[in-house]
Design goal:
Length: 688
């Protein structure tokens, strides 16, 4: 045992300079532990951090080997404490119950064009008939139709329906309640025309910088879309301002199927391209100009210009977490050029992660944050390994070899990025793509040579009203990208769906890839074992046999091994989440005249794994089904009536506990789960 400990200590000591790279991983583990709790920890738990600090200091003074273990525990505790402190500082209120129809008013702080209408976010909301203490500060609603004169900053009144943001609709599903909570949105819903303006937008909104930036982005997006075709204009706006709302669903689906959706979100790729193109263009102009071509600080001036322009691009993009991470790295790299210092890319990434996590711990839960950081870390780790060989190869003069190296580089980086992010994509999106490397090989040159340069020229031409021609060039590049995406998406099995990883499986995969990417010795490859175990956790998941939505309109059951829709629209939002969770693209309706499902005017009856599932529509059918069925599902309230079924779920139970799901065990027992159980009693939970 001592021999193993000594060997391990020697191995770790030999990589002492890499220890600091584990700092954000420790913070992530602490934050994930906080968000995974089924209850809200007491604020007094924060006092445990100073106690750990004292303990660690005592062990360090004695020179104990356990001081390193205590340091690791302290970093995890810091992540837990920062997540708790951040959550306690959120002043938001959630809508407590559904409002079928209400009149609401507030200030528009975001107006997004979506297919078929607008998506509006209102702040300082008041709702007729609802007390201020029960009114959420912000709501988000969808307004159908066209021709609405909605401008950010206006005070408006609307009529529509509202509901609290929903929690998970099945085990492992995305928690929208928590997602909206940390964005200050306490209710979501729909609105119907007309949109009435109470007060116009103020002439100057610079007192509220966030509101002013949002209004500027919206005007810029509209200006970009105006001269272009609808699809290309929507994508151009997404690339230039981060506004993806107007991209049609079929285009989004094709981009996902071809693994090109990362191009639509402003992230590291765009920030690096923007800063690199500005840096080299500025340096070229300085060298080309006879007055500055012999200047000693041309490189530093180019770095400063790239830093400023990229910072403005970040502001215009709306400050998404992935872009902020990339900009921090750009600042470190270009700052090192200005200060004549050398920068270590992996350490730059680590400090960017630490700053973002401490600023907003809820980022750790977001798919974009996880995918962005791990894809970047994987590429940096790969580059560290092959840098010397690549530099030697690129020094050769043979153009054919250089072209082959470029193609190999694109394929390799695509493979590395896909491999590292696969566990996260399976966990969040229940899918994996197979031809992403080919699609990226075809699109990346187009993006680098046509789309991004045209975008930069368009930005600089806008103050002079000359942006149309560069936007037309950008449109041509985007059309080519969309064509590639649709072509690749149409290949059979371009995207396969699979059940999601478990929470433990995702954490194991994350730690496994961190082990591979951070360490330098051969033992690093042991991390792949953890990755494999984490991905295989999808095989351990026992999926429910019966699913009921929160509103009771959608019901699905697993009959003969396939999840099928028994009631409701199979392509609506909740059934789509159910289908993806089961590794399916979409649900099918149960076949007509299926022997295990019968319907009449009084209701429906299904036979699932030997159990009778009744869905009565009338009181008479309810009385009969309560005496014969094992599970009774009703859209109305039971009231004082008696029901002798093993499980009875009515409107009151769904309103209190959210969506329900049932496991019909082989021993005849029935196990029940619901949204309230999954969320626990947390600040973002309505069902508690």
């Amino acid at each position: 045992m001592n021999t193993i400990l000594n060997l391990s200590a020697g191995w770790l000591n030999s990589q002492r300079e890499r220890w600091v790279l584990w700092l954000p991983i420790g913070l992530c583990l602490g934050m994930l532990a906080y968000f995974a709790l089924p209850f809200e920890p007491d604020a007094r738990s924060l006092f445990g951090l100073p106690c750990l600090l004292v303990w660690w200091r005592w062990l360090a003074r004695r020179g104990s080997v356990w001081r390193w273990a205590m340091l690791a525990i302290m970093i995890v505790a810091l992540g837990f404490a920062s997540a708790k402190f951040f959550t306690d500082r959120q002043p938001h209120r959630l809508l407590e119950k559904d409002l079928k129809f209400a009149t609401m008013s507030g200030q528009l702080i975001e107006v997004a064009d979506v297919v078929g209408g607008l998506r509006l976010t209102l702040d300082h909301v008041s709702i007729e008939g609802l007390e201020l203490a029960q009114t959420p500060r912000r709501v988000r609603v969808s307004l159908r139709g066209t021709g609405h004169q909605a401008i950010t900053g206006q005070w408006v009144t609307l009529r529509g329906g509202l509901m609290p943001p929903t929690g998970p609709v099945m085990p492992g599903a995305f928690n929208f309640a928590r997602f909206f909570y940390f964005r200050g949105i306490g209710a979501v819903g729909y609105a119907i025309p007309p949109l009435k303006v109470i007060e116009a937008a103020p002439e100057s909104m610079w007192d509220d910088v966030e509101l002013a930036l949002t209004a500027f982005r919206e005007r810029l997006s509209a200006r970009i879309r105006e001269p272009l075709k609808p699809v290309e204009g929507a994508i151009a706006a997404a690339l230039m301002t981060g506004d993806r709302a107007a991209i049609p669903d079929d285009i989004n689906e094709a981009m996902r199927d071809s693994n090109l959706s990362h191009i639509l979100s402003i992230s590291g790729l765009h920030m690096v391209m923007m800063s690199g193109l500005i840096f080299f263009a500025t340096r070229f102009l300085l060298v080309f100009n006879p007055l500055t071509q012999h200047g000693f600080h041309n490189k530093k001036i180019a770095a400063a210009v790239a830093l400023i322009v990229t910072g403005l691009y970040l502001l215009v993009s709306g400050l998404p977490a992935s872009a902020v991470r990339a900009y921090i790295m750009v600042v470190l790299v270009l700052g090192a050029i200005i200060c004549d210092r050398e920068v270590v890319p992996m350490r730059s990434l680590v400090w960017a992660a630490i700053l973002l996590l401490l600023f907003n711990p809820s980022y750790v839960l977001e798919p974009g944050f996880q995918l962005s950081f791990f894809a970047t870390a994987g590429l940096i780790a790969w580059y560290e390994r092959v840098r010397a060989a690549a530099d030697r190869a690129l020094m050769r003069e043979q153009h054919v070899q250089r072209m082959l190296i470029y193609i190999g580089g694109v394929l390799t980086t695509s493979f590395v990025a896909e491999a590292v992010t696969t566990p996260f994509i399976l966990y969040h999106f229940n899918s994996v793509t197979f031809y992403g490397a080919v699609a990226n090989l075809l699109v990346e040159p187009l993006n680098l040579i046509v789309i991004m340069p045209s975008m930069i020229v368009a930005f600089f031409a806008m103050p002079f009203g000359l942006e149309a021609w560069p936007l037309y060039a950008m449109q041509a590049g985007i059309s080519g990208m969309v064509w590639v995406a649709q072509m690749v998406a149409d290949i059979p099995y371009a995207r396969m769906f699979a059940p999601a990883l478990t929470d433990a499986g995702m954490v194991l995969s994350m730690l496994g890839w961190c082990w591979v990417m951070i360490w330098h010795k051969r033992a690093r490859w042991l991390g792949l074992l953890l990755v494999g175990i984490g991905i295989s956790s999808m095989l351990w998941v026992q999926l429910p046999d019966l699913l009921i939505s929160r509103d009771g309109k959608q019901i699905a059951a697993r009959i003969e091994g396939e999840l099928v829709a028994l009631q409701g629209r199979r392509l609506s939002f909740v059934p789509q989440q159910w289908a993806n969770g089961y590794g399916m693209n979409e649900l099918n309706y149960i076949a007509k005249n299926h022997p295990d499902f019968k319907c009449d005017a009084l209701g429906c009856v299904a036979h699932v794994k030997g159990k009778v599932i009744a869905i009565p529509k009338t009181d008479e059918a309810l009385l009969e089904d309560c005496n014969k069925a094992d599970v009774v599902l009703i859209s109305f309230g039971l009231g004082r009536r008696k029901c002798y079924a093993d499980v009875m779920i009515d409107a009151r139970a769904r309103e209190r506990n959210g969506g329900h799901w049932l496991w019909l065990e082989n021993d005849g027992s029935i196990r029940i789960g619901n949204t309230a159980q999954t969320q626990g009693s947390r600040p973002w939970s309505v069902e508690k």
